[in-house]
Amino acid sequence: MTIDSETLKSLVQAAAERVIASAPELTTLDQAIGDGDHGANMKRGFEAVLGKLDAIGTLPTGDALKTIGKTLVMTVGGASGPLYGSFFMAAGDAIGQGKQLPEDLAEVMSRGVDAVCARGRATRGEKTMLDVLFPVLETLQAHAGEPDLIERVRLAASAGVESTTPMQATKGRASFLGARSIGHRDPGAQSSCVLVHSVCNTLEVLQ
Amino acid sequence: MMDTVGIVIVSHSRDVAKGTADMVRQMVGSEVKVAFCGGNPDGGLGTNVPSIIAAIDAAWSPKGVAILVDLGGAETNSEMAVEMLDEHRRPLVVVCNAPIVEGAVMAATEAAGGSSLDEVRAVAEELSAE
Fold first, then answer.
1. Mean pLDDT within B110-125
2. Which residues constitute the domain of residue A196?
3. Which of A34, A188, B26, B110 is deepest in the core (most CB within 10 A)?
C-alpha cells in the first residue's frame, strides 16, 4: 500500500477522534500522578488538527506531518504539546529530506522518537510516552515487511503502556511524587498507545 | 535610551508570573522591558507556546531576551517557543536555569546596567549553582 493524501487524512482523522474520545480516561490517569490536564490538553490540540484536516489533506506527506506538529505545539499546552509537536515535526522533516512512507517508516519513526528524547531530555524507563514509542520503534525495525507487523506493533504499544505502571517517574510532574508514582499507568504513555492503536486499526481496514 | 536585555517570565500561574513582573518593575525600574505569561488557554494553570512567543515579542530587544521559568512544562514550552522563532532571532533568546522570582530580579538588575545576554544569564544562573 502507499500513503497517499486520502490515506493520511483517514489516519489523522481517526487518530484525532480516538484521542478526543479518550480525553476523560487520560484526565483520570493524569489526576492520579500529574496535574490532571492531559485529557483536556490533548483534546484541544487534536480538535485543532481536525479543524485543519482538509488543508492537511492537500499537503505533501512531510509538510502534512509538520503542520500537525506545529498545530499541536501551538494548541496543546502543557509539556505534551512540545513533545508530540516535536515528534510530528521531526517525522515530517525526515520525509521532507527524502524518506518515503511506508518503506522508511522505521527511520521516520526513529527521527520522531529522537526528537521526543531531546525535547524532554528523557529516555525509556522513566515512565513516559517513550516507554510506548521505543518498543513500537523496535518492532518496526525488527519486523518491517512481515505480514503480522500491525498486530506486533499493537501488542508492543499495549505492553509498553502496561510497563509504565510499576515504574517510578523521574521526569515530569509525576517525578515530584517519587515512589508514590509507582502503581499508576502513565497518562502520556496511554495517549501514545491510543494514537498507535488508532493508526494500526485504520491501516488494517485500509489494507 | 540604551538597549537592555529584555526579561520574560513564564509561570504555570498567571498570578505568579504577574507578581514576579511587578517585583522586577518595583525593584529594578522601567528601563528593562519585562513581559510575563502564565496559564493555559482554558484559564487553568499551565503554560503554552503562543503566549510565550507573544511575551518574547513584547520584551524584544536587539540585545536579546532572557526567559525565567518555574516548573518543567514552562521550560519545555519556552524552549519550544524559542525554536519557533525566526532563525535570526533564535540565538538572541535564552531560557535561564534559575529560580523564577530571584532569577528575574537578578537578571533584570544586571540587564539594567547594559550587560550582554550572556552576562544576564550568568548572573541569574549563579543562583542555581551548587
1. 96
2. 5-206
3. A188
Instruction: Indicate the residue type of B43.
Output: G
Q: Which three cell numbers stand for residue A130?
A: 517513550
Cis? peptide before B99, omega within 30° of 0 = no
**Where residue A50 sits, what CATH number does that domain have?**
1.25.40.340
Quick check: A41 and B40 CB within 8 A? yes
Residue predicted with more confidence, B118 or A6 = B118
pLDDT computed for residue A207 by the predictor: 73
Q: Is B85 on the interface with A (CB under 8 A)?
A: no
- Residue B49, chain A, CB below 8 Å: the answer is yes
Strand partners, B68: B9, B96
Cα–Cα dist A39/A35, whole Å: 10
Q: Do B49 and A81 touch (CB under 8 A)?
A: yes
Separation of alpha carbons A11 and A89, rounded Å: 17
Active site residues of B: 12
Strand residues in chain B grouped as ranges (E): 6-11, 34-38, 65-69, 93-96
B18 pLDDT higher than 70: yes
Choose from A76, A83, A89, A117 for mutation: most chain B CBs within 10 A: A76
Residue in chain B lying closest to A118 (CA)? B76
* Tally of structural domains, chain A: 1
pLDDT at A37: 87
- For chain B, which domains are there? 6-123 (3.40.50.510)
Q: Which three cell numbers stand for residue A192?
A: 501514545
Mean pLDDT computed over every residue of chain B? 94
CB contact under 8 A, B46 and A77: yes
φ/ψ (deg, to 5) at B34: -125, 130
**Range in A44-53, A96-105, B85-94 with the lowest mean pLDDT:** A96-105
